[in-house]
Amino acid sequence: MNRLLSKVIFVAISIFLISCVAKKPIVSESSIIVNKESEASKWFAANSNRPPKLRAFLKKMPKGGDLHTHVSGAVYAESYLKWAADENLCVNPTTAAISEKNHAPCNEITEVPITNAFQNSELYGHLIDKLSLRNFKYANQSGHDQFFEAFAKFNGGTKGMMIAELSNRAAKQNIAYLEMMLSIGKKFSKKFSKQVKFNGDIGATYNKLIAAGLQNTIVNGQQELAQHEQQATEVLKCNTVNAQPGCSVERRYVLQIIRIKNPSRVFSQLVYAFEMVKADLLAVGLNMVAPEDDVVSLKDYDLHMKMVGYLSKQYPNVSISLHAGELTLGLVPPKQLTDHIQKAVTIANAKRIGHGVDIFYEDNPFQLMRNMKAKELLVEICLSSNDLILGVKGEQHPFPEYLEAGVPVTLATDDEGISRIDLTHEYQRAVQDYNLTYPEVKTLVRNSIHYSFLAGESLWTDRSYQQLNKICQQSNSDSCKLFLQKNDKANMQWKLEQQFVKFENSEWF
Ligand SMILES: [Zn+2]
Question: Which listed site, 61, 84, 86, 106, has its alpha carbon 20 to 30 Å from 402?
């Protein structure tokens, strides 16, 4: 962007934001902004039922952040195959499981060199289908099983390469921020879980883990995360003349706890994640992952919520998002559908809920929604994932009910590689299935930063996005500039508003 355009946008956004504060008609230069927003709204209304044009609009539209994306599931199968071929790994041509290490020669009975797939289109196509949900309707298993089985088959590449792929894809869709789920410090949490067994007393086990020196290994977790970041920066060639688009994307991490492990292992992972988030600026939150309908996840759900609840009080500044309610009738018996979201909210003190699909099967769903609204608790809506894994879509999905109830929501991808989607697709799907207007879409986008776990205060007083934080109520003031420097969240929100102004004033539509 040239300097003049930057200045025009800065002035425009300042006037626009101040007019929001003053709640009065916008005049002079700012009228351009409002008129352009209204032009965008009109174009949107006229074309929202025309999917190809809508896709182009939504791709270019600033989308803020993707708050629910698992790094390994977000990588496309084509990348795994390429990386695995570069490392001369082997693959089972039937199941598509890629070998963990280069153990050439490949097992003659069960494996072939993965490089074979690059000379055999049929094999290549079959592997892509098995490593994702492409063509899964022709597979002899459910979307749910194919989805979760894929994770165990991925090998090849480094976390840095994966993060770089996600960053580039985000940048090309005008996504400025990624909050990516990743496992860190696995070997340490495993080691401590063997040393300190969970004995049924959460507080006592916590004290033993701390006494055993778990905190001393957090520095190793920090090094691990820093290494992933460093690798990603190198792959993206940031700070060079060949810098790739992904360099512009701000990245933070949500640490994963695998919940299908035994209680000792789960608790050790939890304590590790809480400690790590407390210590590291890049790690901004934590989440429990793996299928919620797994036999262990169901059996230990209440225990897990109590563990997280206990730790949330020991670490009040650590942000928690939980996969909860990623269930539906038939997948599990009715009694399993009655309280997962409720317990994540009231016992585990989650700030955000991933999925929340089964809310209307819960006891007192309307009361629960009122509670979520009052607590300003955001639901990360993953439409394609819910369709492919649970078979819940369209009017069966509670997304419009969350909107109607005033519960904050945003759209997220979950696992865009396995699902063969991107965030633009999720916005397109939401607009088409639920007749959203452009201002409603903008609110979903703004929610993705307002409810992100980025550090610091919000630019806005609340999620009506009408009133600025009082420090920034004077245009271009030094105190506002300082405020933006000190508050990552507000800074990202300011950038997002700049992007909206630029987008709505662009010529293309
Ligand atoms: Zn997820």
Answer: 61
